[in-house]
Amino acid sequence: MSTAQVYALQRLAEFQASVQTFTDKGKDALSSNAMAIRRAQDWLQSQLEKWKSEIRHAEEEVIAAKNELARRRMMRIGDNRVDTTEQEKVLRRAQAKLAFAEEKRDNTKRWIRNFPDAVEEYDGQARPFQDMLEHDVLKMVLFLQNKVASLEAYQQGTGGAS
User: What confidence score (pLDDT) does residue 51 get?
Assistant: First the structure.
């Protein structure tokens, strides 16, 4: 009967531990990504609500500025009209603020519409990795455990050293 020379049993056990560490870190990374996706989705919804609120506030400012401008235009000092330059500036700023908020709301709505497609694309790429971690790597770890156990039993039976 020939004897096998088993010298790297410890290295095989270390490799098995490294594979398990890789699996754990891979699963953690996938979980972190899933949580980040949920946070991003929640953030987009909160941004939509924020911009809707900003629009309501900006609309109120535009109405107030228009009213003030109209009131100033009706004023007269003698036969001369009152200067409305400042009220016109206030109205333009309020209108610009409203346009900015509407643009942000529209962008946020577009991102919300596109978000599920981006998540689906990510899932399509992450799913094979997750399947590999849950099935293939698990089989590899079990295989390595069995081989290490077999080699240890062989070593103990032959009185060999590792």
Answer: 98
**Full DSSP string of 85-145:** HHHHHHHHHHHHHHHHHHHHHHHHHHHHHHHHHHHHHHHHHHHHHHHIIIIIHHHHHHHHH
Q: What is the pTM of this model?
A: 0.71
Could you give the CA distance from residue 49 to residue 101 in angstroms, rounded to a whole number?
11
**Tokens representing 153?**
């039993």
Our CA dihedral for 77, 78, 79, 82, rounded to 10 degrees, sits at 0
Query: What one-letter code names the amino acid at 150?
Result: S
Between residues 111 and 76, which one has the greater pLDDT? 111
Q: Which residues of 54-90 are buried (b: 16+ CB within 10 A; e: fewer)?
A: bbeebeebbeebeeebeebeeeeeeeeeeebeebeeb
pLDDT tens, 5-40? Answer: 666 778 888 888 899 899 999 999 999 999 999 999
What are the distances in angstroms from CA 74 to CA 64, 67, 129?
Answer: 16, 11, 71
